What does this fold into?
Amino acid sequence: MKRQTILGTRLSNYHTHSTFLKMTEVEIAYMTSVFRILTVLSISLLAACGAPTKEALIQKYGGAESVFIEVDGNQVHYRDEGRIEGGRGTVVLLHGTASSLHTWDDWVQSLSQDYRVIRMDLPGFGLTGPDPSDRYEVVDDVAFLNKFLARVVEGPIHLVGSSLGGRIAWDYSLAYPAAVESLTLMNALGYPQEKWPLPIELAQWPILDSVFASMSPRVFFSSSLKEIYFDDGLVNDELIDRYHGLANYPGNLDAFPKRVKAKLDTESDRIQMISTPTLVMWGEEDIYFPVKNAYRFQQDIRGAALKVYENTGHLPMEEIPKKSVRDYQLFLAGLSRTNTP
It folds into this structure.
């Protein structure tokens, strides 16, 4: 990850008034937002004692469909739904940073009518909680996914990944090409980032990473979700509570800075080696994962299909679930026709 940011370069010279005067309006606004966030974080310490318990979070966000299994030291929370017998195959869904398997709820309602659908909380997130050995590099996630799938499914899969999940998905397809029938990348990591969402940016810095590991105010999630959604009117209390609540699952806050310090936007030269049939899906208004990367994926992956959605941000499966899952189903149907003798 890139570590040089406006904040970092300016803090080293911030001791002089002349340097401050040379700062641009954009830089001043950026630093102002940083200090405002830190103020909110400090105030939120007063509410830290009211964090929900592990048992309460499992009861609220587990549900009858939830299963927990041990995979390489992790108690993995996952759901296995849909047509196991007589279906059209198995779809595996991977969420992104600070998210959970719940991000796919609307997709699963549609896909489960024809496909077996497997989704899990990745280590460090959701009800799976932190990896006991702090293994958060992409190579660790690929190894985890391989061990998890070996426990729950036989045969090839249709693999879908959003954001960080997309980074894991395309790397997995390179490591185990015979295991992946199709690959779908949604606003995925893969190319060097020009900037990161502010929580990720701050959590990469010494001292600030310790702050993020100890507290997580609800207002922070409200603000962040309204940035990554194009239509912030969709950001309701239930959504904010879910992201905030699961971030406070024991150990997840401590895992977050370690997670985001992993090398996530490297090795883009390997993308052109992907041979799996691929669909790229992208919200055009994503302010952190620019739509130009969607076209780079399409160009680098031979034969890749591309769907770009107007007036949509970083999470098409949450913002426009019906449209995005329909396009995904059409993609799979097209593959089925191609493979029919």
Observations:
- Residues 25-44 form the longest helix (20 residues).
